[in-house]
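Lecture notes, continued. The same structure-token format from the folding unit now serves as the input rather than the output. Read the line below as a description of shape only.
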């Protein structure tokens, strides 16, 4: 389902989530398939470089 990815971006909210630390508040299960952005390389730095912001629930600032 989510696979082995470390980070998942939500194109709707432009938030990036750390899947290993996800909380129910992240609403990952409610994220539409077409809104799911995976990253290559699969790093927070790369996600931020693509204008995603850290989710406060699973990453913080
Ligand atoms: Zn999150």
């Amino acid at each position: 389902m989510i696979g082995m990815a470390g980070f998942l971006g939500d194109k709707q909210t432009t938030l990036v989530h750390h899947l290993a630390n996800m909380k129910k508040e992240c609403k990952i299960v409610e994220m539409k398939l077409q809104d799911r952005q995976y990253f290559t390389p699969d790093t927070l730095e790369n996600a931020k470089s693509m204008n995603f912001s850290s989710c406060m629930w699973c990453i913080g600032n």
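Point for the exam: Residues 44-49 form the longest helix (6 residues).
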